[in-house]
Specification:
single chain; 257 residues; 14 helices
């Protein structure tokens, strides 16, 4: 099943990608839970910090509906980079090492250049989505936008904003798919191997292409888990973000040989 891709992968010097089944994402979550349990202090430190940042951003955007919506979806766009320290914890846990929160930060310093380059790509995607979101609000949304409550009631209670809702979902989904395909396993790969950002992004894209059903399921699971975190006013994020981060490391290890 891998053979049609072998020559192209060799031409671009990409790592070998495995084909895996749709049962694997649940296994990634189980292994991610084990990593979090065995490194509870360090893992939850990331959860608390990221949840606090997320809550601060959402609180700031509460009276700016277009920015509020962009912040929620943008949080997922930059998630792979935000979880880099969690990948380092899982990487060292795999070797039988225990690592503190401070120790995991050394892994970020070790890969600072590659992470900064990839972070720039995610930042561009985030800023682009914020601007696109504002434009779609201006073009399609009809109704009061003074706060998030009025915005949500306008979406749910009025048929005047169906075009806005359709455009927002379609454009957001396209951007999310592109970013997910390029970043699904890129940052764990950068932290584990001596490779460049472009190779890591192409490897991630190839992994998603070869395992589309499995990676689509994984993307949906991530959205659901992060959605639960938002619904709990970021309290659930303290656990769910580390869980997804550690599980993503195991997704990388499963997909890349």
């Amino acid at each position: 099943m891998d053979k049609p891709y072998d020559s192209l992968d060799q031409h671009f010097n990409l790592p070998h990608i495995r084909s895996i089944g749709t049962e694997r994402p649940m296994q990634w979550l189980r292994m991610g839970w084990d990593d979090m349990r065995d490194n509870l202090g360090a893992s939850l430190s990331y959860g608390v910090i990221l949840a606090a940042i997320g809550y601060t951003i959402l609180a700031y955007a509460a009276d700016k509906p277009y920015l509020f919506m962009a912040a929620i979806s943008g949080f997922m766009l930059v998630g792979p980079l935000a979880a880099a320290g969690l990948y380092e914890i899982s990487r060292r846990h795999e070797k039988g090492e225990r690592v503190s929160f401070i120790g995991s930060l050394r892994g970020l310093a070790r890969n600072a250049d590659s992470l900064a380059f990839f972070g720039a790509f995610l930042a561009i995607a985030l800023v682009s989505w914020e601007r696109i979101s504002a434009i779609m609000f201006a073009l399609f949304y009809r109704g009061e936008v003074s706060n998030v409550t009025n915005f949500l009631s306008g979406i749910v209670g009025s048929g005047e904003n169906l075009y806005f809702l359709a455009a927002y979902v379609i454009v957001g989904a396209v951007l999310a798919i592109v970013v997910f395909a390029l970043s699904a396993i890129s940052i764990p790969l950068l932290m584990d191997r001596d490779t460049d950002t472009v190779t890591a992004a192409m490897t991630s894209l190839r992994a998603v292409q070869m395992n589309f059903d499995t990676m689509l399921l994984w993307a949906v699971m991530i959205v659901v888990l992060i959605g639960i975190g938002f619904a709990s006013m970021m309290i659930g994020m303290v656990i769910l973000l580390p869980l997804v981060g550690h599980a993503t490391w195991h997704a990388y290890r499963d997909l890349v040989r």
